[in-house]
Amino acid sequence: MKILLTTHVFLPEHFGGTETLVLGVALALKQRGHNVTVVTGYPENNKSCDINQFDEYEVYSIPVIRFRHGRNVLIDQGGAMRNDYDNPVFEARFRQLLAEIEPDVVHFHHLERLSIKAIDACKERKIPAFLTATDFWYVCPIHTLLLPNEKMCDGPANGGANCLKHVTSITQPKWLARIVNSLPSGALEVVMGLLRRIHAKLSGKVGDVQALAKRSEIIGSRLLLLERIFVATGHAQRMLETAGIRGGKFRILPFGIKNHGYVKRVRQRKDGPLVLGFIGSVLPHKGLHVLVEASRLLPADAAVKIKIYGKSPDGDSSYIKGLRLLAQGDEKIEFCGTFENSMMPAVLDGIDALVIPSLWHENMPLVSLSAQAAGCPLIASDIGGLSDIVDSGKNGLLFSPGLASGLAKIIMCLLGDHDLLEKLSGAAVQPMDITQYVDELEMEYRKSISAGA
What we know:
16 helices, alpha/beta
């Protein structure tokens, strides 16, 4: 089969969970003799850049076609909000790629800053199209379903009035955000409804509000055209359905991970310090600050070492600076930078438990599966996507999201109960291997191709 995979960003510059999953799927499919191409985006860092062009390269012999797009928007392209989900430059090139490559299957993994209308193009050419939802971008323009006050959101409400207030709060000047947030949601709902019914594409800030008003309907209607929407957990499906994606052909399929040589090692408390690890993107919704705050709540002589692996895709952001300031003088904390994916077993072997202090609705982070494959217990926020993986008291421990004192209490519990770590480690659950995962994908691909023959 000729198979086309898409993602919003990809290696070598980006190597988060979605990118790692796409690479694993691509390599597994290629090993089975399939012809695989990855189509991806690349946001240019130069904010004054208005470039929109494509280039090509390879990752592990997988052909990659990349859409390099600027932060600014050309006049004939529409507004920034519309281009986030409906970029005409990408759509036009994607249609050409379908004609050139003639794929048997298209499997979308992300379409941020590309175009949801790529699904239309597949439908028109009668190409079976699938989606793996690795986050909640389809119902939340910010991805995270997390409000500025770090409270979780259930998705668009009052015709998207809550989304308008949220987006304005984080993208517009404070004076404008104050005005918009002071307006009654009912009034904003009326405005959003009027803009939604206007067929002409408006420009400027009003055009961005119009694009936001139309966003849910445009994206939701396209998702109904897919053969399958794969989600890793029942929680992810419930969140998408609650936020308006109803009638989609969902299938719960836990992510598979590449076997890097994990050897399940049962952890035991020894005389040395309890070594805790954090592995992931250093972003506010990942909650690393909660772990740092918990460390500062521990007794000064607590036998704990905290290894932090990861970096911020936003560079030396204010969040990073704040973290380092918060951790200053805490000798328990060590910032270890990043590492190659192949080093994951060695990194996990060097820690006793993995901490995932997320504040948002997680969607089965791959690092949690890798940790379980290595026999490493999980200490995680009691939040959907994580509570699907962690059976508290069995293979890990859960604490209330954002509650540093709750996390500190768990750490002290592990220090005080010398049998608990061994118990949690011994009950680690073996995750699905990427080959088993791709077995399921292949079955779905072939089923759809046969049905359309």
